[in-house]
Amino acid sequence: MNSELSNTINPGKDGDVTRQIKNEINVVPVLVESSSSCIMTLESTSYVTVEGGRYAGDFSSYLRDREKSEYHSQDQLYTLSQRFDPPGNVTLQDVSPKIVSSDDEQQNNLRQNIDSADGTEVQDGKNYKRKLNVEKLINKNGGKLLFILFIFSALNVCIYLMSKIALHMELEDGINCTAHDMIQAILQEEELGLPRSAGNVFSLWMCSGLVELQLKPHHRPYEIRQRWFELVERFSNASDSRKRRDEPSLSYQRNVFLLKKDEEQIKDQKILELLYEESKYNILEGRYPCEMMHYISLGAIQAKIELGPYNPQIHTIQFFRENQRRFLPGHIIKTAWSWLRISGKNSPEVGLLEQYKKIPPTTPVKKLVQKYLAFCWTLPFYGSAFFQGQVEQPVRGLTSLITHQDLLVLIAINSQGVYIIDHIQCTLLLGLKYKDMSWDYAKPSQENNPDCLPCLFIQFIVLENGTRVSKILQVFSKQAVMMDTLISTFVEESKRISDDLDGSNNTSTGDNDEAQMPLNARRDLGPSCLCNKLSKLTLATFDDDGHCIGKSGSWSFSY
Predict the structure, then answer these.
(1) Helices 348-358 and 292-307, interaxial angle, to 10°?
(2) DSSP state of 176
(3) DSSP 3-state assignment of 516?
(4) Sign of CA dihedral 317, 318, 321, 324
(5) Are residues 497 and 550 in the same domain?
(6) What CA–CA distances, in Å, run from 284 to 116, 172, 215, 289, 327?
(7) Do residue 417 and residue 554 come from a single domain?
(8) 536 and 395: one domain?
(9) For 355-397, where are the E strands, in sequence order?
(10) Name one Pfam family in it (predicted).
(11) Which of 385, 377, 420, 85 shows the shortest CA–CA distance to 254?
């Protein structure tokens, strides 16, 4: 997997962000009679300075130039930031029209049909109702009048909330309905009871097991769904059969650009409950690494919220043993003692029961939700967008050389930094704040080779045997371009906030002080889970002069 490392550090600001949700549906057109909604419940290189945006050394034999225009070659549909590029006006090209005829005789017949159908609803052979609208367009080549028939069909759309509620909406003009329109429909749903301020907290996402996209307000979900296979081909290196099975779903989730300091000020209980449900999902899916003792404490809080007060007749060790997957992530359940018939005092089910019993029976759900979120807010990767990638593992012995495979990882990116997570073992491999790292995106050197992937280079400084050296990690992923774009957006925003604070002589930071603490110094979270594990990664090492003094894996062939 060879890649070319660019010496340009400032890519374009637009791209897509993404995320996964359990329930999957097909967002497909279903013709209906009217608009309504209802709710249903469902179970070379030296250190690169971010500020300067340039390399401190010259390694022309290793670095490769890229044309700056390449950064801006992406389709506008897949741009990222919701803060830029306000929605444009809808054009004829946006609707994907069907050209009916350009022949004079057929035009006359079409005119007669249009005169009787325009502005009315007609019945087709399948008893579906369609609303016809007509636009005219002059054919510049032949000078003939073309009639373009637009069929705007209603759509039956399901939008999932993280609270296992699905909002079923029948949209009269669903093909042209934007993400903003759907969000407004969610906020207007009385049974949900969400305040208008929720529009700044949550966004519409289209997600599957392979690609996760946060939609911009002017994106049309129907159009993106129609092009989903194209997106999967572009941003996933899964097998062809897996790609063909991939089905996205629409979900209403936390906006990745929401600052944690703003979230901590939210008082509305409906919003906090949705944020709690999303945090719970990330905890149970292993996206938020924690210590085992914290998983058990969080599981006990969840049990109190869902089960109510402790009942000794029901809530036994056997009960929690049978319901572990409901309250704990999978890697905890699969530990060595889980197969034993007799639960030891340190087993997860015993810990869950003991912690559950300690919660006062009169504790209100509101306080429990706040307690759960308060802990999650201390996690450095909280509120991240997640991307799929792979990293090389160090080769240890002849056997591992033969059976060696890349490690599949999640790359979590939020407003504070970048985090490489082994979500199977549920552990943090590498976590870096933006101020402590530099990065670059590189296209594959062999673009026609499916085994040659784009990559993201992450560079950081460490002390090794008392000497300051630079380490570089190579993350391989077809989603590297989206990671690059999101990092650039957050760094630019951080610079803007910093400049504003400097201008007002304010020395406070954009987030709370606790969020800026080193990973291994955060409260009582032990180093076994939230400290960097460089020994599990294949890294290249450079000295202050830019000389490579250590290499392995792909680096052995590229430098």
Answers:
(1) 60
(2) G
(3) helix
(4) negative
(5) yes
(6) 58, 37, 25, 10, 7
(7) yes
(8) yes
(9) 385-391
(10) FERM_M
(11) 385
Token duo for residue 152: 């705007």
**DSSP label at 39?**
E
For residue 475, list its beta bridge partners. Answer: 456
d(CA 1, CA 11): 22
- Size of the chain, expressed as the number of residues it contains: 559
> Closest by alpha carbon to 440, among 424, 454, 423, 419?
454
pLDDT tens-digit map of 273-310? 999 999 999 999 999 999 999 999 999 999 999 999 99
Does 211 share its domain with 353? Answer: no
Give pLDDT, residue 229.
95
Q: How many domains does the chain have?
A: 3
Q: What is the DSSP letter of 299?
A: H
User: N- to C-terminal Cα distance for the chain?
Assistant: 14
Question: Does residue 181 fall inside a structural domain?
Answer: yes
- Alpha-carbon gap, residue 29 to 61, rounded angstroms: 54
Neighbouring residues of 534: CB distance < 8 A, sequence distance ≥ 6: 430, 462, 471
Question: At residue 235, what are phi and psi to the nearest 5 degrees?
Answer: -115, 10
**Which of 377, 403, 431 lies at the terminal end of a domain, its last residue?**
377
Angle, helices 269-284 vs 292-307, to 10°: value is: 130
> In the chain, pLDDT over 90 holds for what percent of residues?
49
Q: Pick from 510, 15, 506: which is nearest to 258 by CA?
A: 510
Q: Is 287 exposed, middle or buried (0-12, 13-18, 19+ CB in 10 A)?
A: buried
Residue 278 main-chain phi, psi, to 5 deg? -70, -40
Q: Which amino acid is at 160?
A: Y
Residue recorded with tokens 């002069």: 545
Same domain, 251 and 269: no
Give kind and range of the element (H or E) at residue 295.
Answer: helix 292-307
Rounded to an integer, what is the distance from CA 123 to the centroid of its chain? 42
Q: In this structure, are 460 and 369 located in the same domain?
A: no
pLDDT of residue 500: 73
Same domain for 291 and 264 = yes
Q: What ranges in 177-227 are assigned the alpha helix state H?
A: 179-188, 198-201, 221-226
Q: Specify the CATH number for the domain of residue 441.
A: 2.30.29.30
Q: How far is CA 306 from the centre of its chain?
A: 27
- Residue 406 phi/psi, 5-degree rounding, is -70, 155
* 155 vs 137: CA distance, rounded Å: 27
User: What is the reported pLDDT for 554?
Assistant: 62
| Residue 426 resides in a domain | yes
- The CATH number given to whatever domain includes residue 160 is 3.10.20.90
Q: Among all chains, which residue has been given the structure tokens 């590297």?
A: 480
Residue type for position 113: N
Residue 506 is predicted with a pLDDT of 52
Say whether 475 sits in a helix, a strand or coil: strand
pTM of the predicted model as reported, rounded to 2 decimal places: 0.71
Task: Evaluate if residue 527 carries a pLDDT over 50.
Answer: no
531 and 419 in a common domain: yes
- Domain membership of residue 51 (yes or no) is no
Domain span at residue 546 reads 385-558
Name the pLDDT band for 394 (thresholds 50, 70, 90).
confident
In a domain, 102, yes or no: no
Residue 6 has pLDDT above 60, yes or no: no
Domain boundary among 352, 377, 402: 377
